[in-house]
Amino acid sequence: MKFARLGPVGQEIPVLLDGDATFDLRSLTADIDGAFLSGEGIARAAEARANGQLPEIEDAASLRIGAPIVRPSAVVCIGMNYAAHAAESGSAPPEVPVVFLKVPNTVVGPNDHVHIPRRSVKTDWEVELGIVIGERASYLDSPDDSVGHIAGFVTANDLSERTFQLEESGGQWSKGKIAPGFNPTGPWLVTPEDVDYQNLRLRSWVNGEPRQDSSTADQIFGVDHIVWHLSQYMTLEPGDLVLTGTPEGVALSGRFPYIQPGDVVEIEIDGLGRQRQEFSAAP
Q1: Which of 95, 72, 71, 74 is nearest to 83 (CA)?
Q2: Cα distance between residue 35 and residue 238, in whole Å
Q3: Residues 100 and 230 in one domain
Q4: Residue 224, domain member (yes or no)
Q5: Based on the domain organization, do 42 and 102 belong to the same domain?
Q6: Would 261 be classed as within a structural domain?
Q7: How far apart are the first and last CA of the chain?
Q8: How far from 238 is each of 38, 77, 144, 208, CA to CA, in Å?
Q9: In the 8-state DSSP scheme, what is residue 94?
Q10: Are 80 and 41 found together in one domain?
Q11: Rounded distance between C-alpha atoms, residue 117 and residue 121, angstroms
Q12: Side-chain-facing half-sphere of 121: CA atoms under 13 Å
């Protein structure tokens, strides 16, 4: 199943996507939030669609696409989870997952405009598979338990300012990850039964020129391991977002220029949708 949120910022409505049709979910839920994802919301949406009880939104194509989930309570990220990206970053592949955090106001719509932070000269792109938590995950017994706690998957762009992340960091990465709008998410949330999540192609482009092209099959730590591992240190709540790392092909490699005002970045994950962001200097 495929879910989205459409409409102006702060006024998004929850929808279910089925083929070329878009259906209004407001009779079932106010939003795509933790309560909807952790309860019977997804099952109720499927039943209502099957019974023809959801009204179709005729002008859906004209509406802004928001992030497919409300602002999460946590955005947890895994760093250097592809060996080739670790190498281009000047690091050995990690032996355990590298964890850092973004803040909730980084999560925006997939095509929303992005401001390059003041003083930035090294704003970078990172296409990533995102996991949306569906059931609280705490001290899971095994990685095999993880999928039962996943509501679905999303495309995410883990935008990063490398000077802030690496040179002004004080040893932590988050300074370079937390500018407002630095986590475009969506366009859709797709439920696990429809996603071959360890075999997804990830790609990115800048001004139409190819940058990244890889597969989640190349992850060092797979999705199931990541959720299990995180649950040993924290409690993941319904609606939380976990980013699983980016493959090689970013500006940090030295092979490509960093993002400049006027640039357009596009990213795509097969089956999870495509994003497009235009960039300008922060006011």
Answers
A1: 95
A2: 7
A3: yes
A4: yes
A5: no
A6: yes
A7: 39
A8: 6, 16, 18, 36
A9: P
A10: no
A11: 9
A12: 2
Length of the chain as a residue count:
283
What's the number of domains the chain is made of?
2
Which pTM does this prediction carry?
Answer: 0.97
pLDDT per position as a tens digit, 196-208: 999 999 999 999 9
Query: What pLDDT does 261 receive?
Result: 98
Q: Which of helix, strand or coil describes residue 144?
A: helix
How far is 192 from 120, CA to CA, in rounded Å? 37
Strands (E) in the chain, as ranges, are 2-6, 13-18, 21-24, 75-79, 98-102, 107-108, 114-116, 123-124, 127-133, 150-157, 160-161, 183-184, 189-190, 201-206, 209-215, 241-243, 264-269, 273-281
| 97, β-bridge pairs | none
Task: Report the C-alpha gap between 272 and 191 in whole angstroms.
Answer: 10
| Dist. CA 92–CA 86, nearest whole Å | 6
pLDDT of residue 117: 98
Helix segments in the chain, DSSP class H: 34-38, 41-50, 83-88, 162, 223-231
Instruction: Report how far Cα 52 is from the mean position of its chain's Cα atoms.
Output: 31
- Could you tell me which of 247, 174, 191, 205 has the C-alpha nearest to residue 69? 191
The 10 Å Cβ neighbour count of residue 26 is 12
* Residues with pLDDT less than 50, the chain: none
CA-based nearest residue to 187, from 274, 87, 91, 93: 274
Residue 161 forms beta bridges with which residues?
123
Backbone angles phi, psi at 263, to 5 degrees: -70, 155
